[in-house]
């Protein structure tokens, strides 16, 4: 489905991604874990076209994404939930969700997907006419995820969905991530909460300073002493 091959990305003189290669197969949850500054969010921004690699190849369903504009990457079936939510604060919940479907023309399908989002996030239905900037952090995270789902993505990119949330909400968000995946959406998850990420993922890649240093089955990595010491608190 998605394949990155030898990707190099720079921020000016800073070499942010150093020849990384990984893949996401259809139906999987794949997670990228690592400390701050490891290159996790940079990887997602490069896939979604917000950053351009200096070299390397990104293919999605055999299309070369390196030459595709960001809005057309959404049209190809990739949607990103950015770190920090970035909801349209002055717009209502329903207006935010409608913005997620702006590339679509199938009114019946849009209506169906809106109902699906409301089933996943009943709180959004209750607050559909509320201005988004007045929602709690957890509600804004739900809205950002719902908005991304409204584009009907084949691949959903999630950037730090648990950031700043209370533990009970983190559990809820990860339960919904599993539900979204089980209903047919492939997920690439960037997450600092390595324990939660590995608990839902099929496979994982560990990034350190722009390089992939470990990869494998998520449950095996969660049981690894090296991973436990570095990312799971011993």
What brief labels describe this structure?
single chain, 234 residues, alpha/beta, Rossmann fold, 2 domains, six-stranded mixed sheet, four-stranded antiparallel sheet, 26% strand, globular
Summarize the structure.
With 234 residues, the protein is an alpha/beta fold. 38% of the residues lie in helices and 26% in strands.
The CATH superfamily of the largest domain is identified as: P-loop containing nucleotide triphosphate hydrolases
Q: And the CATH topology of the largest domain?
A: Rossmann fold
How many domains? The number is 2
Which structural class best describes the helix and strand composition?
alpha/beta
The CATH architecture classification of the largest domain is 3-Layer(aba) Sandwich
CATH C-level of the largest domain: Alpha Beta
Radius of gyration: 17 Å
Helix content: 25-40%
Number of strands: 10
| Widest beta sheet: strand line-up | 6-7-8-3-9-10
- Low confidence ranges: none
Strand content: 25-35%
- Principal-axes geometry comes out as globular
Global mean pLDDT: 93
Element string (H = helix, E = strand): EEEHEEHEHHHHEHEHEEHH
Largest sheet: 6 strands, mixed
The count of helical stretches stands at 10
- N→C terminal distance: 35 Å
Architecture overview:
The chain has 234 residues and is of the alpha/beta class. It has two domains: 2-77 and 153-231, Rossmann fold, CATH 3.40.50.300; 87-152, no CATH class. It has helices at 40-47, 70-75, 93-100, 107-120, 122-126, 137-149, 167-182, 194-200, 218-223, 225-231; strands at residues 2-11, 14-24, 29-33, 55-60, 63-64, 78-81, 155-159, 186-190, 203-208, 211-217. The chain has a six-stranded mixed β-sheet, sandwiched between helices. The protein has a four-stranded antiparallel β-sheet with strand order 2-1-4-5, covered by helices on one side. The radius of gyration is 17 Å and the shape is globular. The relative contact order is 0.19.
């Amino acid at each position: 489905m998605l394949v990155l091959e030898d990707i190099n990305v720079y921020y000016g003189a800073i070499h942010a991604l150093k020849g990384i290669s990984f893949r996401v197969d259809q139906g999987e949850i794949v997670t990228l874990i690592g400390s701050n500054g490891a290159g996790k969010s940079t990887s997602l921004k490069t896939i979604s076209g917000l950053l351009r690699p200096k070299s390397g190849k990104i293919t999605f369903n055999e299309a070369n994404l390196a030459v595709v504009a960001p809005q057309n990457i959404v049209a190809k079936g990739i949607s990103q939930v950015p770190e920090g939510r970035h909801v349209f604060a002055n717009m209502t919940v329903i207006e935010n969700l409608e913005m997620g479907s702006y590339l679509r023309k199938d009114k019946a399908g849009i209506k169906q997907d809106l109902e699906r989002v409301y089933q996943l996030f009943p709180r959004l239905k209750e607050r559909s006419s509320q201005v988004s900037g007045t929602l709690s952090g957890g509600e804004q995270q739900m809205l950002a995820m719902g908005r991304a789902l409204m584009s009907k993505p084949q691949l959903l990119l999630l950037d730090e969905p648990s950031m700043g949330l209370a533990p009970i909400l983190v559990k809820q968000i990860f339960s919904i991530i599993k539900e979204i995946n089980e209903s047919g959406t492939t997920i690439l998850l960037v997450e600092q909460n390595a324990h939660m990420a590995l608990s839902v993922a099929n496979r994982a890649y560990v990034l350190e300073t722009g390089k992939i240093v470990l990869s494998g089955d998520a449950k095996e990595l969660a049981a690894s002493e090296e991973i436990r010491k570095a990312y799971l608190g011993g």
